């Protein structure tokens, strides 16, 4: 078994030698589509063995095994010409049936992706390296997931692309608390690279007992992502977690007419970290009722979530402080949330959870649709003792959520937990940015003797220095 971490690192080193690749985002996009085709072909081989009738949506000539797998295969200019002038045009314009979800995904991925490599020699070296991985070996598959997550985190640390990585501990905690059940429809309308969906899949796998259950799992996980790179990465992420046909759309969830969402479209569970601080695309807000039109993406997503949930459906989402407060549309959005849903818990996170690429204060909001809110429990998540902030090297860890999990089932007020009746929120114009009233502020005890002693010492030091200077 090859050392996958080593293989991926070698490929990235090879990429650095190619004049066409500049910057991590391009390197990840390049690695992404190569991984995708290799992974897809490995899965195709598996399907061909299990089902004699199976036919890959990728035409024979363009399957990885027929142009990339042979280490002595095409290289140099011939390779670059083949990829740029045959492979990409063919996959971008793949003729597929309307119901061929896999074919459509391939087309969407290649429509939003590029081959940046200019040297066929370095390209061939990278391909040969990638051929050391066999995605059908389950051990490799597990290790690959770990590496993949590291690659994503590396990408997330870059400010320009950093909006699509939620710390693993946060996604896991939200999914644990919302607790999706096999058979429920689960959706992430802003799925980024698929972190929430993968967490959900791993949780649901524990409930799978037979082939029918597996089939149910495949069908009930859905998502949507607008940007080409995270969309491609989310598809790869789901395929490596045994979802044969990822039900992920490449598009903008906000582009849907609000009123077109009917009962058949509704879902049982939403887990998401909607983009915030962003301004939505031109005219997107006109898909929403007049009362709730805004350019702030997080607020529109919140309205969308309420509309997407079935009665009795539940959600666990990340929201910035900015969505908890504010007048006008913001206030009306919060009022709708509290009237249509039972917002039972808000976990307030320290500022640095999303460091280094977002320093906004964030909150985890848990709600159930169908009954209005009567009271809200708040829980303030504290930094570990002695730690001043989270960082790339010291991110938030899952075990830090153990106290909240323990408290979750048997709630009581404490230094970190407090309960707010709805009337208090209404009196505050539906402002949910309620600070912890039970926080103990350490009082500074002034010890007069100590202060006098320190002052005397500093005076005598100053005098001594003065005298020394005079002597000179």
User: What is the CATH C-level name of the largest domain?
Assistant: Alpha Beta
**Overall 3D form:** globular
Instruction: Give the helix tally.
Output: 17
Termini separation: 76 Å
Average pLDDT: 88
**Could you tell me the number of beta strands?**
9
Going by CATH, what is the homologous superfamily of the largest domain?
A: Vaccinia Virus protein VP39
Which stretches are poorly predicted, pLDDT < 50 over at least 5 residues?
159-163
Number of domains: 2
User: Looking across the biggest beta sheet, what order are the strands in?
Assistant: 3-2-1-4-5-7-6-8-9
Describe this entry's structure for a reader.
- With 472 residues, the protein is of the alpha/beta class.
- It has two domains: 4-135, N6 adenine-specific DNA methyltransferase, N-terminal domain (Ferritin, Up-down Bundle), CATH 1.20.1260.30; 150-427, Vaccinia Virus protein VP39 (Rossmann fold), CATH 3.40.50.150.
- 45% of the residues lie in helices and 12% in strands.
- It is built from 17 helices and nine strands.
- The chain has helices at residues 4-16, 24-50, 64-67, 76-92, 101-111, 120-130, 138-156, 168-178, 195-205, 211-220, 228-240, 297-308, 321-324, 329-340, 402-409, 422-427, 448-471, and strands at 186-188, 221-225, 247-250, 267-272, 309-320, 341-348, 362-369, 375-380, 417-421.
- The chain has a nine-stranded mixed beta sheet.
- Strand 4 (267-272), helix 12 and strand 5 (309-320) form a beta-alpha-beta unit.
- Helix 4 (76-92) crosses helix 6 and helix 8 (168-178) crosses helix 9.
